[in-house]
Specification:
Blueprint (H helix, E strand, L loop, with lengths): L4 E5 L6 H12 L2 E4 H19 L12 H10 L3 E4 L4 E5 L2 E2 L7 H11 L2 H16 L4 E5 L2 H5 L5 E6 L2 H11 L6 H20 L12 E4 L5 H18 L1
Parallel strand pairs: 1-6, 1-7, 2-6, 7-8
Antiparallel strand pairs: 3-4, 4-5
Bound molecules: 2'-deoxycytidine-5'-monophosphate.
2'-deoxycytidine-5'-monophosphate binds next to helix 2, helix 4 and helix 8.
């Protein structure tokens, strides 16, 4: 039996993960962060590349997708339920911090552009939902490709400046014009890579509700999504 799915898609630093988690908590659903699997695979790719050629200037050139997917199975990459969310495990250890490291972030878009990698991730996401849990899933292609029949699809956006300043604050750093411009440039590069790839690019599903969070406060955006989800649950 499959669970109910609320899909939240949007560009980097649009607030998807924190919003998805809070929405899941209020609805009594689990929060499933699909980006964690892409990041987990990127971590595996970098570890595998370092094992094969520690001095490689371009680590992803050392491993192909098939090698990465096999290494992911061998190294036990998985998401394990931890209450509201899921924790990422690699090599038998929690990897939630390791998958947020800067080198993983930089290489994740290239790994996520490979069709066989996307198939692997989607099989895992479907498996977790088939286990019967109701979930709020966040990502880039959740409403368009992974769960096209989701109960509710939300597309979160925010201005590049708002997203850049949220990213810098999350790191506990001071926001100044130079760091803001630098971060906005990095985000724009990732958005471009995620939106222009051939397979499952980042795009709004035709039936998604678009929410621009530039001027919404967090509470407000969570409350709006929860209200929409409850409305649809009642109408089912
Ligand atoms: O949301 P995030 O920054 O943790 O995502 C990590 C990378 O994975 C990012 O490059 C986008 C990609 N991704 C994707 O292509 N599709 C998804 N459903 C989720 C993430």
């Amino acid at each position: 039996m499959s669970g109910v799915v609320v899909a939240i898609d949007g560009p980097s630093a649009s607030g998807k993960s924190s919003t998805a988690r809070a929405v899941a908590e209020r609805l009594g659903f689990a929060h499933l962060d699909s980006g964690a699997l892409y990041r987990g695979l990127t971590l595996v790719a970098l570890r595998e590349a370092a094992r094969r050629d520690p001095s490689a200037a371009e680590p992803l050139a050392v491993v192909d997708a098939e090698t990465v997917l096999r290494a992911a199975e061998d190294r036990g990459l998985m998401l394990q339920s931890d209450g509201v969310g899921f924790s990422t495990y690699v090599d038998g250890e929690p990897a939630d911090s390791a998958i947020r490291a800067a080198d993983v972030t930089v290489h994740a878009s290239s790994v996520a552009a490979v069709p066989t990698v996307r198939e692997w991730v989607n099989i895992h996401l479907h498996g977790l939902v088939r286990a019967g849990r109701d979930v709020v899933v966040d990502g880039r292609d959740i409403g368009t490709v992974v769960f096209p029949d989701a109960l509710l699809k939300v597309f979160l956006t925010a201005s590049p400046e708002a997203r850049a300043s949220r990213r810098i604050s999350q790191r506990g750093m001071r926001i100044d014009p130079a760091s803001l411009a630098e971060e906005a440039k990095l985000l724009a590069a990732r958005d471009h890579a995620d939106s222009t790839r051939a397979t499952a690019p980042l795009q709004r599903a035709g039936d998604a509700v678009e929410l621009d969070t530039t001027r919404l406060d967090f509470e407000e955006q969570v409350a709006r999504i929860v209200a929409l989800a409850r409305e649809r649950l009642e109408r089912r």
